[in-house]
Amino acid sequence: xxxxxxxxxxxxxxxxxxxxxxxxxxxxxxxxxxxxxxxxxxxxxxxxxxxxxxxxxxxxxxxxxxxxxxxxxxxxxxxxxxxxxxxxxxxxxxxxxxxxxxxxxxxxxxxxxxxxxxxxxxxxxxxxxxxxxxxxxxxxxxxxxxxxxxxxxxxxxxxxxxxxxxxxxxxxxxxxxxxxxxxxxxxxxxxxxxxxxxxxxxxxxxxxxxxxxxxxxxxxxxxxxxxxxxxxxxxxxxxxxxxxxxxxxxxxxxxxxxxxxxxxxxxxxxxxxxxxxxxxxxxxxxxxxxxxxxxxxxxxxxxxxxxxxxxxxxxxxxxxxxx
Length: 323
Ligand SMILES: Nc1ncnc2c1ncn2[C@@H]1O[C@H](COP(=O)(O)OP(=O)(O)O)[C@@H](O)[C@H]1O
Ligand SMILES: CC(C)(COP(=O)(O)O)[C@@H](O)C(=O)NCCC(=O)O
Fold this sequence. Notes:
Bound molecules: adenosine-5'-diphosphate, ligand PAZ
Shape: globular
Number of strands: 9
Strand content: 15-25%
């Protein structure tokens, strides 16, 4: 079902692939084929054409937005009579980009491509990447709370920890640590963190990054995750296509990572191909699809930019929110 906004009512300007690709203008291709290969996830064939026609124009837009925001930040520092060193160390504020969308829609891959392209721009050499998977509650708590079948749902995250992380980033504290999630162990890794030390850009990717927060029981108002964002991208696709991507990824993992006896899903590597496909479909239709329909898709129209994908991860349309 196509739930895109009625163009007559939309705050977005929508570009065809060709119109968007033309906005690359003279932006040079800064990634070599071997670098694109390194960016690919398991089984991903990331086409050079996709990077040139979709992600290069996006990196040009973001570079312009970051430069304008850096000017705004200096204006605020001037207003506050703050010297650059006092404002936030070296007079810069991390520009935070959120990347949202369904499980298996391509958030991690897109985030890695953007990280590589944005780091090539002279005004943003340091680009860090964090996934909100690390802010999931540990399996022990999910199991105690009966939430193992809700992994990825709003209630499965340690939202206060994520908001504290983003607050520290925006306040310029250094370094700030983000917990790490392992898809191999299917759990948050105890005592493992990624340190974020005042990057020019921080990309935060995850299912929940555009969700509006239900007020907590104590009634205290808390911010939305996206209140800390300077720009946000939603990666969109038809549910039946994402279901295929999810099953394809599951089957690739079954043939690789799941074969390791230490892998959480090792038991699935013992299944026949048909049983494994049925299991992947059951997990998708029982957990990730309801989460997409109820909690993720409704956040699409909060994004600044929507990448609408077709069957093989190609982006067919780009919608950019008008200022
Ligand atoms: N642009 C792309 N081109 C080709 N394959 C892709 C692309 N983006 C994602 N994929 C594939 O789709 C699956 C999901 O991608 P991933 O980035 O892991 O999604 P997410 O982080 O949203 O779960 C992965 O198996 C990956 O190989
Ligand atoms: C950990 C996740 C919530 C994160 O989603 P993703 O990074 O794949 O978008 C998801 O991969 C997940 O494990 N969902 C629970 C059901 C499943 O095993 O797919």
